[in-house]
Design a protein that fits this description.
This is YcaO domain-containing protein. By secondary structure, this protein is of the alpha+beta class. It contains 21 helices and 26 strands. The strands form seven sheets. It has an eight-stranded mixed beta sheet with strand order 8-7-6-9-10-11-12-13, sandwiched between helices. The N and C termini lie far apart (about 80 Å).
């Protein structure tokens, strides 16, 4: 295809390096390297390189070259253009950046050019941006130096405390040695005048060498109200947390979300109480080069944002800088509901849930990836740790404590016949337990649920729902409601056993036909020589319910509408209890259940029958009332990932 040389204005990228090699020339940039063969290739590139400055079109260059060289000039230029070493700047927007400044900041401009177009204009806009630096101490001094070296013409400082102005003057003198136009402006602000910081600012950068969390929460809101972008670095302990970068039209609550996610997995963190801690001593590792590294990273994030390299990046993660090891890591986070405006409890969502598409275990495990993060995740990790994996596979998920109801992050477990199944079950359980402790009290004292039998919206006292003692989920709304009703009925086991007077029949599993999985579990229990008995509590609760007792204790009490499912659950938990005890790993042992007294352990009886959901609801409401299924969805983003988490409550009146 014929090339229109008048539509190409070539410029050699600033990061290109050419080296002579026996084969010809080796050319390299940040894009990679290429070998260009030919005895005279190196000399030819060296001759044309000064011409590829973006001031003339390829047609103009060829017209000015000797006729014998024109074809080779065009061919080599197009080759370099195709490989990315030359850029077509025909459509670059005009700029007024003086040539001497372009030379002084050539490396900064070349960096912009690597990612986007019109680098001189973008740098010129950055240079004249109104950037306000807030904070105190060595971090603010180092950030000032970083901003001056990045090319900003005027650096505005809003010091909140100690600041070595002589050191600032030294940084300015060094900057003006190469850029005489640079200057420092001091803003007269204090804690009572924070709103003045962002007046006329393009971007506000805040640094704190200790956890000044109240200020860190307030400044993004102030910047957003003034139409300014924002980013900050806050040190707590021996770690500096940088970001997120919030655009002028971005989410001003992003930093609060990030910090709330962090404290949900680290409740002992200084500043987890969301208050300023001026009394906290700065880290012993925050000195010399580490101060400069933290400042440079924050300055670099602002440079990338304001030059348009990645204007939308950095809004959904923090960067952790370990002051002792100098290790950095990116930590994504989901918006925290308490950082955002409250979402009213809308009864219309009940119909939407009932009609929503199913989410099976495989899909739920895939979605959970967005929730996992060691420091700022909803879940810290999904792991098998060093757990014994025979006869059952066991996985663990560490769940965050989003509003402080759980006493800190806690582990939940899942088991199964494969590691995939154990992980999927652990993830589902994690979503259930998280939803059970995630309550947004701003929603008020009344929450809407759905009558299990009629589907009618019903208002329920929030205190009846949260914190949820039981939470259940399913692939869809109907399955979740079914599981929640079973869980609600099972809550009455202890009371039912206390009131029982007649012995409960024992079930002889050797005489009962089990579903395939239940049969496998029974066989495994025999192989490991685990003695146990099963007693039928179905008449006490109104649905198939079984207590599994070993010579040491009652290890499981399971219920379901379907007899086979209830038995399968009990056999699995009995096997898991054996595995936990044999491996001396109590962490994943089944939850403790009420002990079945000896006097209630009767003789062999018949297998009970399965029941319907309506029959269980009738039993739960025999004293009046209705059973209401309330979705546990107070974290909207997590509820989008796992929409069908429910608590069933009996409502009277």
């Amino acid at each position: 295809m014929e090339v229109n040389v008048e539509r190409i204005r070539p410029r050699l990228r600033g990061d290109v390096y050419v080296m002579r090699v026996p084969e010809g020339a080796y050319i390299r940039s940040n894009l990679g390297g290429s070998m260009l063969k030919g005895a005279s290739t190196y000399e030819f590139i060296q001759r044309i390189a000064p011409l590829l400055d973006g001031t003339r079109t390829l047609g103009e260059l060829c017209a000015a070259a000797p006729e014998a060289s024109r074809a080779n000039l065009a061919k080599l230029t197009m080759l370099l253009l195709g490989k990315g070493y030359v850029k077509n700047v025909l459509d670059d927007r005009p700029h007024t950046l003086p040539a001497d400044l372009a030379k002084t900041y050539a490396a900064n401009i070349a960096f912009i050019e690597y990612f986007t177009e019109s680098p001189e204009l973008r740098f010129e806009h950055y240079r004249h941006s109104g950037i306000v630096l807030a904070g105190s101490g060595p971090l603010l001094q180092a950030l000032t130096n970083s901003q001056l070296r990045s090319g900003v013409r005027t650096v505005s400082l809003a010091p909140f405390g100690e600041l070595d102005r002589d050191r600032i003057a030294e940084h300015l003198a060094a900057g003006r040695a190469q850029d005489p136009e640079q200057r420092i402006a001091y803003l007269d602000v204090d804690a009572e005048q924070l709103d003045r910081i962002a007046a006329d600012a393009t971007m506000v950068l805040h640094v704190a060498d200790r956890p000044m969390i109240e200020r860190a929460l307030l400044l993004p809101q102030i910047a957003s109200s003034a139409g300014a972008a924002f980013a900050q670095a806050v040190v707590t302990g021996d770690e500096a947390w940088l970001g997120p970068v919030i655009g002028k039209d971005g989410d001003a609550t992003a930093w609060e979300s990030a910090w709330r996610r962090l404290r949900a997995l680290a409740p002992d963190l200084v500043g987890a109480d969301l208050r300023d801690h001026p009394e906290a001593a700065p880290s012993d590792f925050l000195r010399g080069p580490t101060v400069a590294l933290v400042a440079n990273q924050l300055c670099f994030a602002a440079f990338r944002h304001l030059t348009g390299i990645d204007p939308g990046a950095g809004t959904d993660h923090l960067v952790r800088f370990d002051l002792e090891t100098l290790e950095t890591a990116k930590h994504p986070f989901l918006a925290h509901p308490l950082a955002r405006p409250v979402v009213p409890d809308d009864p219309a969502r009940l119909a939407a849930l009932a009609a929503a598409a199913p989410v099976d275990d495989e899909e739920l495990a895939r979605r959970a990836v967005d929730c996992v993060g060691p420091r700022t995740g909803v879940f810290a990790e999904v792991t098998e740790r060093d757990y014994e994996q025979l006869p059952l596979f066991v996985s663990e998920v560490v769940v965050s404590d989003p509003v402080g109801l759980a006493g800190g992050p806690f582990p939940v477990h899942g088991c199964g016949e494969s590691v995939v199944e154990s992980r999927q079950r652990a993830v589902r359980h994690a979503f259930e337990r998280y939803a059970a402790v995630m309550v947004d009290s701003r929603k008020g004292d009344r929450l809407y649920g759905s009558d299990v039998l009629t589907g009618e919206p019903v208002a329920v006292d929030a205190a009846e729902v949260f914190p949820a003692r039981t939470a259940a989920s399913g692939d869809d709304w109907a399955a979740a409601v079914r599981a929640a009703v079973v869980a609600a009925a099972t809550e009455n086991v202890a009371a039912a056993l206390s009131a029982a007077t007649e012995p409960l029949p024992r079930l002889d599993l050797d005489a009962v036909e089990l579903a395939p999985r239940g049969a496998r579990y029974l066989k495994l229990l025999k192989i490991v020589d685990q003695a146990f008995e099963v007693h039928d509590l179905s008449d006490l609760l109104g649905l198939p319910t079984f207590a599994f007792t070993t010579p040491d204790a009652t290890v499981a009490c399971t219920s379901d509408l379907d007899v086979d499912v209830a038995l399968e659950k009990g056999l699995e938990r009995t096997l898991l209890a054996y595995q936990s005890r044999a491996a001396n790993q109590p962490g994943y042992a089944p939850a403790q259940v009420p002990d079945l007294p000896e006097h209630l352990r009767g003789e062999a009886g018949a297998r009970p029958a399965s029941v319907t959901l309506d029959e269980v609801v009738t039993r739960l409401t025999r004293d009046g009332g209705r059973v209401v299924a309330v979705p546990l969805d107070h974290d909207p983003l997590v509820a989008e990932l796992c929409p069908f988490v429910v608590r069933a409550v009996v409502v009277h009146g």
